[in-house]
Amino acid sequence: MSEKIIYLDNAATSFPKPPCVYERMEKFLREESANPGRSGHRMSVEAEASVERSRSLLAKFFGVKNSSRIAFTLNCTDALNMAIKGVVHEGDHVISSVMEHNSVLRPLHALEEDKMITLTKVKPDSECFLNPADIKKTIQPKTRLVVLTHAPNVTGAIQPIREIGKIVREAGALFLVDAAQTVGAVPIDVDKDFVDLLAFPGHKSLLGPTGTGGLFVGERVEKITPWREGGTGMGSESPTHPEEFPYVLEGGTPNTVGIVGLAEGLKFVAEKGIEAIRAHELKLMSALRAGLAPLKKVKMFGPKSAENHGRAFHFNRRA
Ligand SMILES: Cc1ncc(COP(=O)(O)O)c(C=O)c1O
């Protein structure tokens, strides 16, 4: 492509990807792309090893001890649906916020409409931050799940997930974090942040291709009901879907070429260092805010300082 592009839509999906992502995916497709876990021939075994290497890299990245608790998904929406529909039961109470992406709000709304759950949506303050005390106040004996974004795609306000996670853990509920706008750009440690379920895309700040994402399911989640069954290479004689992780959530042939591309994106991010990436983004965010501040016709939304700002930034022309 000879035309120079200024691409400002990284919150939707990142572009361009690092060259190593394109190179690895092409090599994999041309030379290695057999079906993992389905056969005993060399290419199938190697494809499976590549998928497992990607899984281990992700586990290291999030501080997950048992990599099999990470399932590959199609995107973050897929992971969020799997988590929400997989852990709630009839009669449960769920807490979320009014700032969530429709990939959270729609499945929750559908469950509420079906009278499966009751739902409380917490409101943020004027800078779009949630107050952990507000979450605490809404917890009920029937609260099974708290599902919140780490940073919304509209305002980018980074939420105090560690403080909220601690409250949710003490209450005995499960904490699902939507890391679509922070993974690869803001550090996340599932243990330190008290996260039971982490939904993330591979195609945004982890710099992998579209069609990739994942769901971490912590040990406090004893059972997760899959909504896609069959299509695994193991135990073909059994009429029931396996309950072991990650296979319980990985029915069907995986997006192997995407998963190996994601591993390269992840390695690139890890080599640059998440702190260095964050510092660079903060510098850009501060420069943008300083440039826009004197413009009387521009209104900026969300956090007032760059510090708690994720990657998304919302500004508009004043009416
Ligand atoms: C906060 C948030 N959650 C979830 C999603 C859904 O991610 P995906 O496009 O990977 O399904 C997005 C997408 O932009 C998002 O911004």
Characteristic key phrases:
319 residues; alpha/beta; Aspartate Aminotransferase, domain 2; 2 domains; seven-stranded mixed beta sheet; two-stranded antiparallel sheet; 9 strands; 35% helix; globular; binds pyridoxal-5'-phosphate
Quick gist of this model?
The chain has 319 residues and is α/β, with parallel strands linked by helices. The chain is 35% helix and 14% strand.
Output the strand order for the largest sheet: 1-7-6-5-4-2-3
User: Which stretches of 5+ consecutive residues score pLDDT under 50?
Assistant: none
Main sheet characteristics: 7 strands, mixed
**Helix amount:** 25-40%
Please report the number of helical segments.
8
- The appropriate CATH architecture of the largest domain is 3-Layer(aba) Sandwich
Strand content: 5-15%
Bound molecules: pyridoxal-5'-phosphate
**Mean of residue pLDDT?**
95
Order of helices and strands: HHEHEHEHEHEEEHHEE
What is the overall silhouette? globular
If you compute it from the alpha carbons, what radius of gyration comes out, rounded to the nearest whole angstrom? Answer: 20 Å
Please count the beta strands (DSSP E, at least 2 residues each): 9
Q: What is the number of domains?
A: 2
The CATH H-level homologous superfamily of the largest domain = Type I PLP-dependent aspartate aminotransferase-like (Major domain)
Determine the N-to-C terminus distance.
38 Å
Task: Give me the CATH fold name of the largest domain.
Answer: Aspartate Aminotransferase, domain 2
Instruction: Identify the CATH class of the largest domain.
Output: Alpha Beta
Structural class designation: alpha/beta
